[in-house]
């Protein structure tokens, strides 16, 4: 990226330029309910979710907006559903490249293709490809809209956190700005400051896991091409530009290409434009015109913190866990962190729930991180076999997969991100055996078409009683909450996804659209007990 392009890019995504705050002139550190450190996609989404729930929040970032380069690219259906609840999904869908289909090649042979969303009746595609700066911009646009409606969200650019001092009931932050240092206090601090997380380092917390001995080159190229909107992955590609390669379409005629480089490389040499062009030319052919838009080298890492809650400090996104890019599990899992955390913190702050409810954020999202790390590790081991025997096994599987469907279940070019089901969570209530496993307690609600719209937007921001073929009161009040009813007709999609073999159903749905409990009939005392469990009062 040339200096001129980089400057234009910086100005276009300078979302929250520095402005002096009255807090900098206060005689004592100002105290805030929630401070978020980090203005990437996870920090912005957290601020937006909390602010839309009426929680005052201050977001601090050491920059003034989105950084250079496409970085995170593939945003999953569940992420779009969450962003839809936050008021940001529409522009993402309009700008992003939508896709459901992927193809897997070995050398120059197509082994098979797959469809990540073969089932109809969903508002969103399996994935969109959208460069991270645009994803952040659309979240920021939604914050501006929420602020205009009165959401108490404040964004402070070029406010770098230099030190954190935890106390029993608050956290003190030392902050540096262009005008010098000042201090703030927060009842709760949420660290969304990325995989290198300065806050994690300031608190002396570990970040343990595995670094894989391989390197990958990202080359984002601008070109006109008639490739279909699909995910193409090659094992041992015939164009000999690495041991594996990946091709993805992005908006604005940008294409993402990943090349596997190996472990012992000269990174500076590999990033020389002539050497990048040699690899791209070998893949695309010498007559294809293109421009290099952004390039980077990354290493696979699968790591996480031991715990995501440390007193009054909560970690989310890459600051809490890190996975390899294949499978699109990084930003997508971070947005699920936000989805899990914001409603719980809001209930704690308004006194409805005890602060021990936040321990369930740690438990559930550690469970999600472990699931992502397991899948990411398996993908990495398959893509980058480290011994001759493992490579022999890998290639035998690829040979079989060309003709035998069972072998395709073993091929792993990156198991793509799916939302986590919180099996075994302490918040889960009763289940019913006649209902579909996909909507058991702990699972995210699948969307379904309704007359004139879709199911998920009708669930709102709080708890919901969803009823099918059952007589249920308009609302239920218990434990300081009023839970409205949503009555559904048993359409084919609703019946398949929520009824199964049951004649009727009542679901208690959490604010993050995960199932808390379900029954085949209305039982007020049972629902009240499940609600108490779901807010940590049991």
Rg over CA atoms: 24 Å
Instruction: For the record, give the distance between the C-alpha atoms at the N and C termini, rounded to a whole number.
Output: 55 Å
Largest sheet: 8 strands, mixed
**Helical content, roughly?**
25-40%
Task: Provide the structure class.
Answer: alpha+beta
Structural overview:
The structure is a single chain. The chain is of the alpha+beta class. It has 3 domains: 3-95 and 129-207 and 305-371, FAD/NAD(P)-binding domain; 209-302, D-Amino Acid Oxidase, subunit A, domain 2 (D-Amino Acid Oxidase, Chain A, domain 2, 2-Layer Sandwich); 437-534, 3-Layer(aba) Sandwich (Glutaredoxin). Helix content is 30%, strand content 28%. The protein has 14 helices and 26 strands. The strands form 5 sheets. Strands 1, 2, 8, 9, 10, 11, 17 and 18 form an 8-stranded mixed sheet that branches. An 8-stranded mixed sheet has the order 6-5-13-14-15-12-16-19, sandwiched between helices. A hairpin with a 2-residue loop joins β20 and β21 (453-454). α2 (41-52) packs parallel to α5 (132-148), α3 (77-85) packs across α4 and α9 packs antiparallel against α10 (357-383). The longest helix has 27 residues, at 357-383. The chain is globular, with a radius of gyration of 24 Å. The model has no long low-confidence stretch (mean pLDDT 94).
Comma- or semicolon-separated keywords:
538 residues; alpha+beta; FAD/NAD(P)-binding domain; D-Amino Acid Oxidase, Chain A, domain 2; Glutaredoxin; 8-stranded mixed β-sheet; 14 helices; globular
Helices and strands in order:
Layout lengths: L2 H10 L17 E8 L3 H12 L4 E4 L13 E3 H9 L3 H7 L1 E3 L1 E6 L2 E7 L11 E3 L2 H17 L4 E4 L3 E7 L4 E7 L2 E12 L6 H5 L5 E15 L8 E5 L8 E6 L4 E9 L4 H4 L2 H12 L6 E14 L4 E2 L2 E3 L5 E2 L7 H20 L7 H27 L4 H14 L3 H4 L40 E2 L2 E2 L9 E5 L6 E4 L2 E8 L3 H8 L5 E5 L5 E5 L4 H11 L4
